[in-house]
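Q: Convert this sequence to structure tokens.
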Amino acid sequence: MITKNHPNYSITKYKSCNGMEGLAFSGILVRLSDGKAIEVAEVNDAGNGGELRIRSLNKAELDVFHLYVKNLALKWTEGPFIGEPISGPEDIVIEEIIERIEIEKRCKKYILFSLKGDALDSYREIKVPKDSTHARIIALIHNKYGDTVEQIINELFS
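A:
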């Protein structure tokens, strides 16, 4: 399974590379409304273990984003603070949006899937050969693994 979808928000002008301590990226957080992308903030992470930076491009829209995140009421699901509110949940929402973008990019070259019993938030991948199609590889996965196929992640993006 992959992270939560936030259908009203996306990142445009997205660029990424490997940082010293994880993915480094930059882009523009946008709110999607009536087919338009309304710029909210510039977001970037240097991938060096530091904090995600959010620079407002539209104060009113950034306030709407903060309210959206606050209404999600994100809470810790593990560790010593189970059930406690998470501080700085905007970072988590932006990271979830970035993760979906990165997974969607991988779906162009690979079939991503999970089997029953696989670790949560993990997936397997099979490269699609140039002489084949996504549909053919998905059929082969179903033939090989049968009822143990939990999810074909590519189907979330088609």
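The first strand starts at residue 9 and ends at 19.
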